[in-house]
Phosphoinositide phosphatase SAC1
Amino acid sequence: MDMGINLKVTTSPEKVMLENITGGVSLTIERQRVDARRSICHSYGVYGIVTISKSSYLILVVDAIMRGMMHDHVVYEIKDVEIIQLKRGSSENFRNEMRAVRRFLGGNGVYFSTYPLYKAMSAKKDDDVDFLFNSLPLQKFVKHAGGQSTLFSIYCIQGFFGSVDVGPICLRLISRRSWRRTGARYFCRGSDTTGYVSNYVETEQIVYEGEKATSFLQVRGSIPLIWEHALGREYNPKIIISNQKVLHIADKVLRDKYGDVLYLNLIRSSGYEGNIHCAYKNELLGNNKKGVHFNFFEEGGIVQGSTREKFLGLIIEEAVTSFGYHGFGKLQSGVIRTNCIDCLDRTNISQFVIGELMFEKQISHFNIESKEHLFEQLKNLWYKNGNSLSMQYSGSFALKSHFLSRREQGVIDRMKDGAIGLHRYFVNRLCHGSLQVTYEILTTDLEGKSISSYRDNIRAIKTLFLILVLTTCTASWALTGIFVASFFLSVLTISAITVAIIVVFLDFLIQKPKGRRRQ
């Protein structure tokens, strides 16, 4: 069992010394003298170096939880990091940004292992780092520390790792989000001019027993046009398309990696999504690309019955059979690329249906007694996958999850989806500016540059709420002498007032995108 590396980290105001206890080697990193005490800690490895306005920080993983095995390699999820300042390049204090980075890495599905999680089993190129989430921080660490740095580094993905063993049969579901155009929901849409799209995720469905293994790949990603939202009070903000002519570039990115491509588009052909549906459909036709358009909502879901048969009949089943899977002397020759608007809820359900179809073919190579149990485990993994990817991009769990249970949407399901939708509405508008800043710090080169700044709206609202509650409670207590009743009455009253204030001043509080990172 490969548990990974074990580092002893000793810091002083002048240097950071890394000692690889597993490998018996050490590395010293010089730092600009900073106000810091001498300290010693243990680490799972170096995440990398991030730089903001010429101030640089070393990120070390100090806490992680085991999430399963990939062959003989332990897979961990990061739970906490230590951030050490190496150089202070400006008078600005980036303490808040580094605190946000620490929160992000400790709770956003970032995994590492001595197994190369960032590469599919069928990867054509060994140097493909599209899904190595800490690619840029590692590059900076190598540049700073030299050739031995690989002995101290960990290699991470952001996304999902799901692991289930049924007897000797091992089922794994791995989702890898590309770092090349990543960000928060309304802050990162569409494609850049190099063909990389936001929320570009490769999902690999793996079945193995010992050395015998099969894998099947699907990808999701934002509609490959250059577009954004006019973010405001509207629940569905207006879609603005500024350039359509990048699909052929985005298509080449996929074909170079996967071979043939089938585009599966799940958005509505009318209403809020109508204009981008029309533009996307025309671009697919104009570039002679194979596309399937399936209105998920009009069809009422696709997990069972005649709707499932209709969905698979739209050349989906033909494409799955034609593209095949990797393993047992076979090579997957193409990929189905799925999108809705967010590439979350509808996309995850559709990918589950496609994955379930291929799963039957994958497990045919193995001696399995209880296929029903294995299929149930597959469904559970896709359910968790949907929630994990949704949380990272939208800040909430996935919608429409009842479809994975093959049942009609009940009252409880509608209430749950309504609560999630409301949560998304406010979180995406009030909080995601700071989340976007964190993505920028971790995945873009900010050396010599400033970062976007956003009001800390949530902290301001919490402070306002607390002040109003304490003031009202104290006044009420002084008048009535009954503390408990006064407290609860005050909380209810001030909650209503706070919500009213948020609604009235929502236009001011909304954190809107401040220009695109890459075009």
Observations:
- The radius of gyration is 25 Å.
- The longest strand covers residues 55-70.
- Residues 182 and 198 are 5 Å apart (CA to CA).
